[in-house]
Amino acid sequence: MAWSGNSTPSNSAFSRLRNVRDPDLSSSEECLVYTPAPGGGNNGGGTAHSFVPHSVTTSPGRPSNHQANIAHSSPSPLPSGSSTESSASAPPPSPASPPSHPSHVSVNSTAGSLRRAGIPQSPVAPHPVIGPPNNPAILPPTSLAAPGSPSGLPPAGPPPTPGTNNGGPMYNWQATMTTVKERFAFLFNNEILSDVHFLVGKGDSRQRIPAHKFVLAVGSAVFDAMFNGQLSTHQDEIELPDVEPQAFLALLRFLYSDEVQIGPETVMTVLYTAKKYAVPALEQACVDFLKRNLSSDNAFMLLTQARLFDEPQLAALCLETIDKNTEDSLAAEGFTDIDHNTLCLVLERDTLRIREAKLFQATVRWSEAECEREGLPVTSANQRQELGRALSLIRFPLMTVEEFAQGPAQSGILTDREVVQLFLHFTVNPKPPVNFLDVPRCCMTGKEQTVCRFQQIESRWGYSGTSDRIRFIVDRRIFVVGFGMYGSIHGPSEYEVTIQIIHTATGKVCASNDTNFTSDGSVNTFRVMFKEPVEVLPNTNYTAYATLKGPDSHYGTKGMRKVAVECPSGDRATFQFTYAAGNNNGTSVEDGQIPEIIFYT
Q1: Which residue stretches does the UniProt record annotate as biased composition, category Low complexity (predicted)?
Q2: How far apart are CA 465 and CA 587, in angstroms?
Q3: Domain-ending residue, one of 268, 292, 316
Q4: Are 6 and 120 part of one and the same domain?
């Protein structure tokens, strides 16, 4: 008997099997074999199918479980109106003869064992045949009698689209995935079950990207409001002209699978997209990537982006990199592309390691690039106009008279009055006042010094909100720019820290800074800097404070009460350390935190 995809076979298609007795079983068992009929003799030209009865015999000594051969093939449903019987089909084989099919799968029957064990049995459903995506398997119905198909045959319908249910069989892609993560990752950028599309980008780079509202709403509050809020949209297509397609795909990949896929070319656009759709975990992954790849070559470019995206930690790391490698950073291509506010931010710093004459030359280069961006001729008048406040941040009094005469005095950027005032400042005593700062940058001649008070490093120093403190006195005038601090014993970690210098006798806070620093887990100290140098007078007691919030850290032992540091000028700066009365979180002269004071003379 044969049947078409659009009709059900007659009851005569199923013949009752003769009873087959098993000595171990309380009743006989019987089975049906689903066999594709050869030739395809239906009106629609498709493959015909038949259920052919076969008996299963057992003999004493053989296992009690019987095997029924189930033939399978990729069904090709026939058009409506096809005959339920095939005149060209071969007569069914006799019960004693084996079935003839091209291929078959063995299925073990354990009904007898279940009955003996007293386990209730349910009707046996056909086993789904699962295939790889490039050879989709078709799921049979889950019961012999599907709704609307009293004879138990699968409902008719057109060939299914893989992964969809068009009222017909479905490709069982779900069964090929073993975890929820795999199933959701499979749906990434996939039309299967998608209920929204995004038109991302503009121009030739525009892409149409499928997505699933539920997944997006679970991963992003912005998408949740977009689809489910009071002002939610019901559009099937949403335009995103301000987002790069690759960045949006990176965002979706993260929402579907937790996978981060960013690189040097895409990290900034992914960071923008993560911020736009409020996905802080991906945002942090971008920031961490930038931190790992921060160098003097890209410090200015990343500083501009960090300020634009309001990433203070990244901005602080960029500024620290610029401080340590000022000349190389200023020579990088990204320097001339920074905005005016970022230029002023850098020129205000007291911690730049560069001669003022070279800093002026770099600033002139920036003004030339800015004139070109504004479409102005590169003249000294236009350069002065574009520099604006930045020009007043150049510390001309720190130059030698030769440096000033060979550079700024001949640039035409300064007025004649300013040039005369500065020459008088260089040559006349007492020096007349000028309109430019004369506070030294701590590292302008490489005179930064560090005094270390411990001889050995140990592990575990905890923090509970109490400040680590140590008193010190020095025999000459210095400028303190920061402290060296010990970092984590648990690998790379970040600390929140407040540092202070307080005049011990009066309690006056000379300087304070709330900041963060990142430890790489080594025993090396990490610089925590003040916003500007702190003047420390000779033979005056000061107290250094550090309040840390973070994991347990290394600490110093075998502390020294008196330490002398050789200065570049040939003389010495001698420090004496004493115990600071009160609660110091355990820090003392002998052991604790604040191992280093960073200063210049």
Answers
A1: 71-89
A2: 13
A3: 292
A4: yes
Do 288 and 304 share a domain, yes or no? no
Structural domain containing residue 288: 182-292
Distances (CA, A) of 367 to 195, 234, 350, 371, 388: 52, 50, 22, 6, 10
Q: Which amino acid is at 156?
A: A
Tell the burial category of 518 from Cβ atoms under 10 Å away from its Cβ (0-12, 13-18, 19+): middle
Reported as a single tens digit per residue, the pLDDT across 72-120 is 434 444 444 443 444 444 444 444 444 444 443 333 333 444 344 444 4
Dig out the tokens for 548 from the structure.
């840390």
Q: Cα–Cα distance between 479 and 593 in angstroms, integer? A: 21
Kindly report the pTM of this predicted structure.
0.48
Q: Please name the helix (run of DSSP H) or strand (run of DSSP E) that holds residue 365, with its range, or none.
A: helix 356-373
* Cα–Cα dist 591/553, whole Å: 13
Tell me whether residue 8 is in a domain: yes
Same domain, 283 and 351: no
Structural domains counted in the chain: 4
Is there a domain that residue 511 lies in?
A: yes
pLDDT at 454 exceeding the cut of 60: yes
Q: Residue 429 pLDDT > 50, yes or no?
A: yes
The CATH number of the domain holding residue 483 is 2.60.120.820
Q: Considering only CA atoms, which of 513, 586, 506, 502 is closest in space to residue 542?
A: 502
The residues facing 489 across adjacent strands are none
User: Model confidence over 306-344: pLDDT tens digits?
Assistant: 998 888 889 999 999 999 889 899 999 899 999 999 999
Give the integer Cα–Cα distance in Å for 229 and 286: 28
Please give the DSSP secondary-structure letter assigned to residue 171: B
Going from the C-alpha of 487 to that of each of 484, 556, 585, the distances in angstroms are: 10, 11, 16
**Is the domain of 264 the same as that of 399?**
no
Task: Return the minimum-mean-pLDDT range out of 112-116, 196-200, 443-447, 512-516.
Answer: 112-116
Distance CA 457, CA 499 (A): 21
